[in-house]
């Protein structure tokens, strides 16, 4: 990288292009780093407090990355003319522009996703992921094969070999060989990532990782006829499984469910008694604030409204606080929000016991709000009179979680 270019004035056309190229490369590298941090589940659980900052930084760098493109666009015709005889360079240019364009447009939609319906965000997230998983290996390949050391290596003819430019020239062979190796290696490295990303979109590929139904609760609840087969016809889309701790392993022995605080009679349920509380079945959609959604999920569980009426809410109670068995995650609803018909303490999803990574055996669902409200491994509901701020809201998520 030639840093001096950034401080020089009156550069010629070629040097200006190089400067734009350098700026673009730096910004793209920063976007890749912050993007991977946001994607990483280790980061989600280790540094939850800076997640929102990293997201904002990623967005701002995204906006900055428009600048090199804006500077470049007026030069594009002249540049293309210069590349008239270099097909490879032209193809590369189109590829890079397409990748950047897709990333920027989908990034813009994701930044302002709350102004669009959720299906637009899911689509844009798909485009953002796709252009990341195709674009990054491509751009890494491009950077390696265009780097000075690669070229030096490539062009170092083996000793005593004539360097005439003709067919079967060993130098040319060496070049193609090295490029193919680099390309192959990159494909091999990126395949697992691309595979695990694509898999949910093709359920037919089967369960490569093997879904662990770690929740061995006995007795198993008997699904209602509306649950099995699910009246919603089975969910559309895939959950991305999130946790801010290690996923708690719950069993008949260590699991209990507490209903307490400002209620007429506090209750502690063991699994067997918990299953005696009447359940209902509903079909609803599930939206995460990061852009993905799962549609037509058939949930079976206790409608929160009825649950609260059964234990009797004291008039002083203003908020409902939800606790997770992970010991860390909490969230709240106002009494009015908690009384919405579709807020549910769910036990079955599409007729099956909710899996461990999906928040089972019991999780909250609040379909009209973003899923950070939907506490996983729910094991306690407390009625309180003072406001409580939930896990992600304490760390910068909006207190207004309504999906529009
Ligand atoms: N205990 C707990 N509940 C949680 C979370 C979490 O990290 N821990 N993440 C929330 C967020 S942001 C989302 S999008 C959903 C994700 O649910 P899933 O992991 O079943 O897909 O759970 C919500 N409930
Ligand atoms: Mo989320």
UniProtKB/TrEMBL annotation:
Q: Which SUPFAM superfamilies match?
A: Oxidoreductase molybdopterin-binding domain, Transmembrane di-heme cytochromes
Positions the record marks as coiled coil are none
**Record-annotated membrane-spanning stretches:** 25-45, 57-73, 93-113, 119-141, 181-198
Q: Which residues form the Cytochrome b561 bacterial/Ni-hydrogenase domain?
A: 15-142
Q: Name one GO biological process term.
A: respiratory electron transport chain
Q: Which keywords accompany this UniProt record?
A: Cell membrane, Membrane, Transmembrane, Transmembrane helix
Q: Name one GO cellular component term.
A: plasma membrane
GTP-binding: present as a keyword of the record? no
Q: Manganese as a keyword? A: no
Protein name (database record): Oxidoreductase
